[in-house]
């Protein structure tokens, strides 16, 4: 689907308007950073809310920590349903803008409710549902980016990589900014501020996303048509799940593992994440080259093996220098995973990008939920160092699955842009 002169995936080095594009699509084709900017704003807004959940339930509402799990379960379950529904809607040619605005509005309303009513049951019964719907925006934006790349003749693999870079950049800044804001002003003003970010995100969406933008695939699902079973798509989500769980297990255990069991300064986890995120962004940028050399599946296999090696090494780390040096390997393996995994899954259902992307994002959400739950259970039964071994095992299982499964039949055509 790659047009002449669009090899870098972002800039259109050609001149003039491409045939068949509407005026607003022609503008986005000339300035594709607008599409990327929309995702960056969304990633910044949504990531700003992520680190507050535990603090809000335990410190703000005075509830037991286990009640946070109930909120997480409700939110993830709603997100899974929304991702599936929105994915099918995209493949049935429902305009993307309607779905995206719906999610953003729910996210903003949820943030406002948390600021107005600091009551646990409001959080569990209302806000968590709204935030679950709001989380569906990520899948919709990834689908929008994929379809935009195809319709404007861009390199899909490279553009997917740029989409993931925006997500990583948003997560590099959002959590730290919201925690800093919370430390000065408290919960309610912080949630109002995030609701303000959601308003900016919504306005940006209304301005940038064309109202009639929808899937162009001839095999998109018709209204009332059932989604055919796709074993390849489901199998592609399996290694994504295991590698994703490995990352979540380690990240959730890392602050306490470093401070309480390695005896490092409290800020060591923050320094390690900074190194990881920097390397991750650089690696994602070059993932398209790796894919052209070895393909998506082998690239994912490299990521899984590097992940297993990283967890094995960090298990034996003792000093801050060890931690920071190994954080570069952490960023390397996760950068490859982040840069390839979405394209890897999408290539098992190229004519249903909405469904494929919803499966991908849902897999990450489920992996995140299970990873957080396992971290608490294993750390309580053993210690945080044991969770690192568990993360290593998950990454290794992901590598085994990738080693025995087959490549997607569409992977070569996408890589070559034909």
UniProtKB/TrEMBL annotation:
InterPro entries: MFS, MFS_dom, MFS_trans_sf
Pfam family membership, one: MFS_1
Keyword annotations from UniProtKB, A to Z: Cell membrane, Membrane, Sugar transport, Transmembrane, Transmembrane helix, Transport
Subcellular location: Cell membrane
Signal peptide: none
Bilayer topology term: Multi-pass membrane protein
The name this protein goes by in its record: MFS transporter
All copies of domain Major facilitator superfamily (MFS) profile, residue ranges: 232-418
Cell cycle keyword on record: no
Transmembrane regions listed in the UniProt entry: 33-58, 64-82, 94-114, 120-144, 165-185, 191-213, 233-258, 264-288, 300-317, 323-345, 357-382, 388-405
Gene3D superfamilies: MFS general substrate transporter like domains
Location (main, coarse): membrane
Family under the similarity heading: Belongs to the major facilitator superfamily. Set transporter family.
